Amino acid sequence: MADMSTDRQSLSQSQNSLNSSIISGDNVTKTNDEITSEIASEFCKFLNFNVEKEETKFNDSVEMMLTKLDEFFSLVDMIRSDTSLCLTTTLPQIQEKCAEMEFIFDKIDKLEVFVNMVKDCVAATEDKVNKAENELGAIGGLVKKLTSFVSLKKSPLQAASKGKKPEYIPPEIFSTEDYLSPPAFNATQSTEEFGHSSQ
């Protein structure tokens, strides 16, 4: 814009000088071709634009876009490699672990059934113990012994009737061998371990 203003000023100055020379009656005589060429050269200055700054900005923006494209392509390559790794390695491992987890879930279900059965057995045994304590009078036994010395002697029939103990029926208790198999015993391994321990 500054160049255009200077060109305009120079053009106006040349026109003013030309007009002044014509008005003042100088002996400068110019042909029509010379005047036309001079005016054309002055007008050519308006068409000469300085596009270096715009070109520099455009080149910088192009370079920045190319850099971003390179980064984007590198990101796409990384995602592609990660995807191939997941499809070839990670996904089969996850499927294998899922199959193993199904086996573990089955064992957990069996363990829950076993724990509930043990809980029922313990509750039944505790019920039997409470009934036995109530029938035998384990808590008041000492008091009865102390009062027996003070009280009168009872008849043999009463003693025999009270001497009868209730029949004990043991509760059905589970066997751990039915649910938990013992570890296999290897004779050769045990002898080797014994030999190492003796040394």
From TrEMBL:
Domain of life assignment: Eukaryota
Protein name in UniProt: Biogenesis of lysosome-related organelles complex 1 subunit 4-like isoform X2
A single cellular component GO annotation: BLOC-1 complex
Gene that this sequence comes from: LOC106070024
Composition bias, Polar residues: 186-199
InterPro entries noted in UniProt: Cappuccino
Residue segments, region Disordered: 176-199
